[in-house]
Design goal:
Layout lengths: L90 H13 L1 H23 L21 E8 L7 E7 L6 E7 L14 E5 L8 E3 L5 E6 L6 E6 L4 E5 L9 E2 L10 E6 L7 E6 L3 E6 L8 E4 L1 E6 L5 E4 L2 E5 L8 E6 L4 E5 L7 E6 L10 E6 L6 E6 L2 E6 L7 E2 L7 E6 L6 E6 L3 E6 L9 E4 L5 E6 L11 E6 L3 E7 L1 H4 L5 H65 L9 H12 L1
Antiparallel strand pairs: 1-30, 2-3, 3-4, 4-5, 6-7, 7-8, 8-9, 10-11, 11-12, 12-13, 14-15, 16-17, 17-18, 18-19, 20-21, 21-22, 22-23, 24-25, 25-26, 26-27, 28-29, 29-30
């Protein structure tokens, strides 16, 4: 808790007049008489220096209140108020008691008195509608407001070991709870006795976690089930998939996958699928595999896909290079069979999983031009335009279109490395990126595309993850942002209205901007193909005409040589037949 202090200040001119020192005779202000009873308890000290001052002594005091730890407790009242001799579980006894009360004359008088009180309150409510929306339907322009964010609370890791927040998942029903996964993903930085617990936090109680999750290995990712919020699934550092049923007591997972059938590397991302049962999920890992699971039977995955670059290597029996998956995106609105996978090589893969057909990789984005210079830490489709998606990697954020292999828009290179990012669920032109220097950048493409719209210093530690609350609860979708850092602290931020309330015609404007950039990129791609075709045609024509040009060159050299020797003969010089040595000497000159 911060220390509170108050500084008393006074101007020099308010001290009064200057002191006027002058000499005057000494005066006796006071004396202490000698007490003979206690004289023997003292000794004479020689020399003895005594300083006397008549200035009042002042001191500075600081007060810090003790931290008050609050604990939330609840009570569920089912049925009560019955006399001791009445058993509420016996309907016969309760019915007799109710009939007895109905015949009591005091019961009617009490009901009549309470009816008058309630009638007065009802009349007041009918007179003034306190819930009336006076400006319903009118849109407020927030574009002129100053952008700002407000820190609401902090959720700190309960362990002494400093662990990074690797993933944050909001509860689907509203901004009341969030699940946080803690792990250390830096190479060879994990201690021997690494804490494995992750937590579920209650927004109303930041002092202690609402529930603890104890997997076999630290969680790298965790996500709530959108169809059944009482269940969640997490991916572990050792490649296991853990499933929790929050309705059951205990912190251990309800079911865990078998290590032989699981991933061989950390599970970096996982998504619940849009299925009838609501128990299916898909996971991605840097071992180069995409695994589909049924959480009711985690003995083995239901389907498997190997992530490759699609280029056969003749040195390794035409085998394709395996790409490690670092991020995953699945949105049923874009298609229940479509998946996007970000890799640690900076390439994006588009996967299609149709029922009763083999899983295939449709397209590879950035394979030739436009890929990230490092791993892709986040990938997400635009909530208003599903054909466009955002990727976060190296020092830039890039926007892609499904039909193009190159990005249509790229941000400038940030001053620090980017670690995570996501779209705003309410504003289609706003997205957030977290940086390694502790800053949170907000890009607003509806306002401008070349500069960051707003930057907020979250802390000194490197930021590692971000999640924007997108649930329907309490109408605050897109307003609350949870940001995790490398020291295990989750900061809950509240955005201003202009950053989460959509502007008028914003959706149409952003769609038109994306279409314009798509057409521009297609035109550039066609121009590049045309230049490549012309270059190949010129090379082909040059190879065919090279023989004819050599013949014409030899004929020209022969004519020049004949003219040269004819001029020499006309001037009386030696003939060509009599001086073969000069002929040989003159050939280089004529040739040159």
């Amino acid at each position: 808790m911060a220390d509170y202090f108050f500084s008393y200040q006074k101007r020099k001119k308010e001290f009064g007049k200057h002191c006027n020192f002058e000499d005057f005779e000494s005066k006796l202000l006071g004396s202490v008489d000698t007490v003979d009873a206690i004289r023997n308890e003292y000794i004479i000290k020689n020399p003895n220096n005594v300083v006397l001052d008549n200035i009042p002594e002042m001191s500075e005091h600081t007060v810090n209140t003790e931290r008050v730890v609050t604990v939330n407790k609840g009570m569920k009242h089912l049925e009560g108020g019955w006399p001791k001799e009445i058993d509420p579980s016996e309907n016969q006894d309760t019915n007799k008691w109710r009939k007895r009360l109905d015949k009591d004359p005091g019961f009617g008088a009490a009901v009549k008195f309470l009816g008058q009180v309630n009638e007065r309150s009802i009349l007041q409510n009918n007179t003034i509608d306190i819930f009336e929306e006076y400006f319903l339907g009118q849109t407020v322009d927030h574009s002129t407001e100053n952008l700002s964010t407000k820190t609401l609370m902090l959720f700190k890791d309960q362990t002494e070991e400093k662990r990074a927040v690797s993933k944050i998942s909001w509860h689907p029903d509203g901004p009341n709870k969030l699940a946080v996964a803690y792990s250390i993903l830096r190479f060879q930085q994990m201690p021997d006795r690494m804490p494995v617990q992750s937590y579920i936090w209650d927004v109303n109680n930041p002092n202690s976690p609402d529930r603890e999750l104890l997997p076999q290995s630290p969680l790298c990712t965790v996500v709530y089930n959108h169809k059944n919020p009482d269940t969640l699934v997490g991916g572990c550092y050792n490649g296991l998939i853990a499933f929790w049923d929050l309705r059951r007591p205990g912190s251990n997972p309800y079911e865990t996958s078998v290590i032989e059938k699981s991933h061989h590397d950390p599970v970096y991302d996982i998504f619940w699928l849009h299925s009838k049962t609501g128990f299916e999920c898909v996971s991605a890992s840097t071992d180069g595999r995409l695994l589909w699971w049924d959480t009711r039977r985690l003995g083995e995955p239901t389907d498997t896909l190997l992530l490759t670059d699609g280029i056969p290597n003749p040195n390794s029996k035409n085998q394709e290079k395996v790409l490690g998956g670092t991020s995953l995106e699945y949105n049923p609105e874009a298609g229940p069979t479509k998946y996007l996978v970000g890799t640690e090589q900076g390439v994006v893969l588009s996967v299609n999983k149709k029922p009763k057909k083999a899983i295939e990789i449709n397209q590879r984005f950035g394979g030739e031009v436009g890929k990230h210079h490092g791993p892709i830490y986040s990938i997400q489709r635009n909530p208003a335009n599903m054909k466009y998606f955002l990727t976060i990697g190296d020092w830039t954020a890039r926007i892609w279109m499904e039909d193009l292999k190159t990005p249509i828009m790229t941000t400038k290179y940030h001053a620090s490395y980017l670690t995570d990012g996501c779209w705003s669920p309410t504003r289609p032109g706003v997205f957030f990126v977290t940086r390694m220097d502790g800053w949170l950048d907000v890009w607003d493409y509806f306002y401008r595309q070349n500069e960051v719209a707003f930057s907020h210093k979250v802390g000194d530690a490197a930021l590692s993850s971000i999640s924007v609350q997108a649930g329907p609860g309490q109408g605050v979708g897109g307003k609350l942002v949870a940001v995790g850092d490398a020291e295990g602290t989750v900061t809950l931020l509240e955005l201003c209205d202009s950053l989460h309330i959509p502007q008028s015609n914003e959706k149409i404007s952003i769609a038109q901007m994306f279409d314009r950039e798509t057409k521009r990129e297609r035109n550039l791609e066609q121009a590049k193909k045309a230049q490549e075709a012309k270059r190949k045609e010129r090379e082909k024509d040059g190879a065919g005409n090279r023989g004819e040009s050599d013949g014409r060159l030899e004929e020209t050299l022969r004519k020049v040589e004949e003219e040269f020797f004819s001029e020499i003969n006309e001037n009386g010089g030696p003939s060509q037949e009599s001086r073969p040595d000069e002929e040989e000497a003159s050939e280089p000159a004529a040739s040159s």
